[in-house]
Description:
CATH class of the largest domain: Alpha Beta
Largest sheet: 6 strands, mixed
Strand order of the largest sheet: 15-14-13-16-17-18
Number of helices: 8
Radius of gyration: 25 Å
Helix content: 10-25%
Mean pLDDT: 82
CATH architecture of the largest domain: 3-Layer(aba) Sandwich
CATH superfamily of the largest domain: von Willebrand factor, type A domain
Amino acid sequence: MTRRPPTLPVLFALTLALASPGRAQAQTDAPTGPVLTITEPADGGVVSGAVTLKARLEPETPGVLRLSFTADGQPVCSREAPPFECAWDAGSALTPHHIRALLVMRDGRRLVANVRTKGARFAPGVDVEVVQVAATITDKSGRFVRGLGKDSFRILEDGVRQPVTHFIGEGTPRELVVAVDMSGSMEEAMPACRSAVKQFLVGLRPDDQVSLLAFNDNIFTLAQRETDVAARQRAVDRLAPWGGTALHDVVLRSLDLLDRQRGRRALVLFTDGEDRSSHATVADVERRVEMSAAPIYVIAQGKGMRERELKRVLDRLADVSGGRAFFTDSIEELPRVFAEILEDLASQYLLAYDPANPLRDGSWRAIKVEILGTNPHRVRARKGYRATPRRKS
Length: 393
């Protein structure tokens, strides 16, 4: 009796039976073929914040046209050759995500792989245990003072002296987030802005971890804790102006990224306009800054200089955090401003102490940093912090 070939529904059922989470096999008549696998994140895992999406084709096969990643239905990146990797920001909330990889071969074959991560019932919070304070010291002439030791500092919280338990000098690596406005109003200024940002990134230490965020109506992660100078430069080239300005949202996202890390850290924020696209409010941002140990360096142009209320907000964010606000007349001033920020960052000290007041009542605690000795000094540091209650697990 002649055997009939399997029908299309049977072939489809066999394909489903052979598939597994995170893997997809080429639909071909050959008994074996290239297999696409998502290796990160793991199927069923939990992710948040900066994540690297990774996929692998086994065996490696010539003729790949491109591989594209999507997360929750939104495009993330495309790669034309291995390694098939790209940075993705999963956000601060521990929510489920669907990651999909689509590989297209030059002969028309398409391979698909999927993973689904899980959510959790809690999100990272900011607790008061060891309070960190970044401090920059200048003399009466405005020159940075370097080479100070732990015993040169005194910290007061609400007027009560606190013993310095941790100290990091000014010559150590840093964790930085650089957030650049790429809204439509930046179109004419974008070439000069890219050049200035590149110059700033080149001036950083090789071991500094740099995350580059771009924002308009949305927030895009262009580089994630990158130490390679060439990779940082390529990330800057991806800045392209369009859309509105989600300034408040990008500040919250940046501080979430920074507060997951230890050591010296800072946010460098460039914007030329007022916020028109954020979900978060000014009050949300101000409360979040009060809980963060990261200094904020704001560079404002355009409406950031002219609008009184916006200027007040930007000034306050920088002042409360212990950073600085720069209001520039023209894009040509950016290299000078970025150079000042570089010198400022290079001169920072990081101090920490266990607060003598154990209450976590949500109150504001004022911080004052002093330099011991007779020579006059100017200290720039965070003005205080919000003693938030511990989150219950």
